[in-house]
Write a structure and sequence with these properties.
- It is a single chain.
- Helix content is about 30%, strand content about 30%.
- The chain folds into two domains: about 110 residues, Protein of unknown function (DUF541), domain 1 (Translation Initiation Factor IF3, 2-Layer Sandwich); about 100 residues, Protein of unknown function (DUF541), domain 2 (Alpha-Beta Plaits, 2-Layer Sandwich), CATH 3.30.70.2970.
- Strands 2, 3, 4, 5 and 6 form a five-stranded antiparallel sheet that branches. Strands 1, 7, 8 and 9 form a four-stranded antiparallel sheet that branches.
- The longest helix has 26 residues.
- It is elongated, with a radius of gyration of 32 Å.
- The protein is α+β, with helices and mostly antiparallel strands.
Length: about 270
């Protein structure tokens, strides 16, 4: 034991150094809350807007024992889509088609030959939502078209979002003023603001589109509906946009300015 005593000072020094290293972290954690009176409030803004643009996603799917015959069907459907777009005055550049994918189905033909499935994802951007009923109605129900998903939007969404953030902060200030008055304080400046992402509530009847879908049946989601499962009348309606923007704001609370007392009148 006597031989270990010279090492005790080194051990004590090491422990003290380790404790010192933890102090800044603890102090930082303690200073995460402002050291002045404050009010942390939430504000929100809700708006309903009529969309002026839309997008439509769907798949062209066909199967045949002869892959060349299946490819001919895909090409024929694409020609029909382009023809409808041209009729409605939709720019050809607003059409995006993924490369045609080919796979072999598990089930075989009656003669035992393999069955080839060909599919392609189609995305159409609609710059004039007035064409939506004609576009959707012209494609829904066509053979070999499946996995429909639609989305409505605003071309001025950035401006609308800015306006909603401004209104949400004003709502938060109104709430903070109530808190300050009830606490006998005066509402001070804003010291922190965080915004939530703009939420679009039910923009497309539960059919908000995914980005291009790489899997069709195994990963089919509720937003990509089979053509036969879609109510035609509902699908062709232009849906209004219901949007909610929320913010969290921290206000400083200052001491209230005492009311001035009028001097008593001399008799």
């Amino acid at each position: 034991m006597l031989k270990m005593k010279p090492f005790l000072p080194i051990l004590v020094a090491s422990l003290l150094a380790a404790a010192a290293l933890t102090l800044p972290a603890r102090q930082a954690a303690a200073s995460s809350i402002p050291d002045y009176p404050f009010a942390h409030v939430s504000g929100s803004n809700f708006r309903i807007e009529l969309p002026d643009i839309a997008t439509l996603d769907f798949q062209i799917v066909t199967a045949d024992a002869d892959p060349a015959a299946a490819r001919a069907v895909v090409d024929a459907r694409m020609a029909e889509v382009r023809e409808l777009m041209q009729k409605l005055g939709i720019d050809a550049d607003d059409l995006q088609v993924r490369e045609v994918r080919q796979s072999v189905r598990k089930e075989r033909a009656a003669d035992g030959a393999p069955v080839y499935e060909l599919s392609a994802d189609v995305h159409i951007r609609l710059r004039n939502v007035a064409n939506w009923p004609a576009l959707g109605g012209g494609l829904l129900g066509k053979p070999n078209l499946d996995s429909f998903a639609a989305d409505f939007d605003l071309s001025t969404m950035d401006q609308v979002n800015d306006e909603m953030v401004t209104a949400a902060i004003a709502d938060a200030r109104r709430r903070a003023e109530v808190i300050a008055a009830a606490s006998g304080k005066r509402l001070g400046p804003v010291t922190a603001v965080t915004t939530d992402a703009l939420k679009k509530l039910g923009t497309t009847l539960g059919m908000e589109r995914d980005e291009f879908r790489t899997e069709r049946r195994a990963n089919r989601g509720p937003s990509n509906q089979r053509a036969e499962d879609i109510d035609r009348e509902t699908f062709l309606m232009v849906q209004s946009l219901k949007m909610r923007q929320a913010v969290d704001v921290v206000f400083r609370l200052d001491n209230a300015v005492p009311a001035r007392t009028r001097p008593a009148r001399k008799p």
